[in-house]
Amino acid sequence: MKISQLSDQYSVSEQITEADIDQLASKGVQTLICNRPDNEAADQTAFADIAQKAESLGIKAVSIAFTGTQMSDRQISELADILAGNQRVHAYCRTGNRSTKIWQAVQALTDQTKADQTKENQTTIEQDTASQGSNPSPGAEVKKTTAAHCAKPTYTVVIVGAGTAGIAVATSLLKRKAKIRICLIDPAEQHAYQPGWTMVGGGVFDVETTLRPMHTVIPDETTWLKNAVTRFDPDNNRVHLDDGSEIYYNHLVVAAGLEIHWAGIKGLPETLGKNGVTSNYSYKTAPYTWELVSSLKGGKAVFTQPPMPIKCAGAPQKAMYLSASHWRRNSVLDKFDIGFYNAGGVLFGVPAYVPALQSYVERYAIHLNFLHNLIAVDGDNKTATFTHTPAEGEAREVNVDFDMLHVCPPQRAPEFIRNSPLADAAGWVDVHPQTLQHTRFNNVWGLGDVTNTPNAKTMAAARKQAPLLAHNICATLDKLPPSAHYNGYGSCPLTVEHGKIVLAEFGYEGKLLPTFPTWINDGTKATSQAWHLKADFLPWFYWNGMLKGREWLV
């Protein structure tokens, strides 16, 4: 057993055995802490056996077990209470890393509390002195009050949401200020590379390659709270969690993503994933898309797109083009009647890319139906109901039969965002479109799909936003104004056929913002270079670059 002494009072080690407890007792250890859940490994000594041996030697044994960096504020406080007893403490986990991390969290909390206490006391003294005059009478009592949050967990930056945007901004902050105290709040067990689901539905990726355990992508230098946020209180710099606890911050970053509103279409939740009804907007049903595409030999294939905003505006078309490409390669395309039903009035919002897309619409003989919004699905009878709202005339309902229905559901901000003081009238986090700073609360920021910035909601947008938001927060911490400006960049790799992509890259007001010169890749045309970028490079870059704070191509 190798013991690392972190302070006169506290030491850590890797997993111990019953035999090691005698050595710990000889060193005067009075409390033994286990930071490792049972059954992580087959050769692991159970905590109950450790505790029984420890207590026989007069050592108190306590389990404060967690996985990865998932220590809760309650566990941090529990260790703080133990250390406050001035006993000799030894903690262990698999390698000693978790035991070190939670001790560091206690030290950071203690330092922050002392700093807040000193600042608050100084403020109170100054206020009382001013109220009594510059020379208070001898013996006059000066009240010293402590801010209500001094005894609460306080972080320099709290990030709500550990998706693409949340992880990226955390790693970008750490790149700039390595010792900054960050808390990530997200209840999810899995982290998903969502752009890969289009390729899953096209038979290119296995869905399992798009998922990883959340604890493997959370930066080690941060605290992860596996909780849901129930309420924001920006006037008091705190968020409320679903376990009743409160977390305080100096700066808040909201990266909560958006809500896929399946129930916004009548009958969809009951039939999704069966009866020929599928969607690439869920990892559970993206494989079903490929199952349908690869098994059908003909019939009516319907693809839908709801009103904006949605995550990746090109995704509904991507599913359609990849399906048609497969049927064309297998010489059955002429057996299909393909219809695209779009609630909007154009094929794509940036005109420069429409000619290339239109050529594929014609190649696959796709029937375009604009101003058609899906409102209901009858899976048993394989009927989709749309509201058709023509430019002139009254809206009417249209029923369309199908053999395969790929649905892009309506999307909105999560409920806890919509009903918060951070939201605009439409429910999105209200930020300045350039600096990403909240319009009313200067220490609140937003990025990713949850904000009201008028850009395409894509992973590429978050890739551009994260570094500049990190820069602006760090500037504010250094008492400087936020100086980095976001230009609205977003990217939509439109998979028009197997092996070729139209790489749409654009910013605010549809301005073209190509990453590469046209001699490398002309984004207004379908190219094989863009396909290799999406299929081969971007997934690797996502896991090993973007989520690690490597700000390439920014």
UniProtKB/TrEMBL annotation:
InterPro entries: BLH_phosphatase-like (IPR005939), FAD/NAD-bd_sf (IPR036188), FAD/NAD-binding_dom (IPR023753), Prot-tyrosine_phosphatase-like (IPR029021), Sulphide_quinone_reductase (IPR015904). Pfam families: BLH_phosphatase, Pyr_redox_2. Residues 155-274 form the FAD/NAD(P)-binding domain. Residues 5-109 form the Beta-lactamase hydrolase-like protein phosphatase-like domain. GO terms for biological process: sulfide oxidation, using sulfide:quinone oxidoreductase. Keywords: FAD, Flavoprotein, Oxidoreductase, Quinone, Transit peptide. Transmembrane segments: none annotated. GO terms for molecular function: FAD binding; hydrolase activity; quinone binding; sulfide:quinone oxidoreductase activity. Residues 120-137 have a biased composition (Polar residues). Residues 112-145 are annotated as: Disordered. Its cofactor is FAD. It comes from the Bacteria. Gene3D superfamilies: FAD/NAD(P)-binding domain, Protein tyrosine phosphatase superfamily. The keyword Glycosyltransferase does not apply. SUPFAM superfamilies: FAD/NAD(P)-binding domain. PANTHER family: SULFIDE:QUINONE OXIDOREDUCTASE (PTHR10632), SULFIDE:QUINONE OXIDOREDUCTASE, MITOCHONDRIAL (PTHR10632:SF2). This is Bifunctional protein tyrosine phosphatase family protein/NAD(P)/FAD-dependent oxidoreductase.
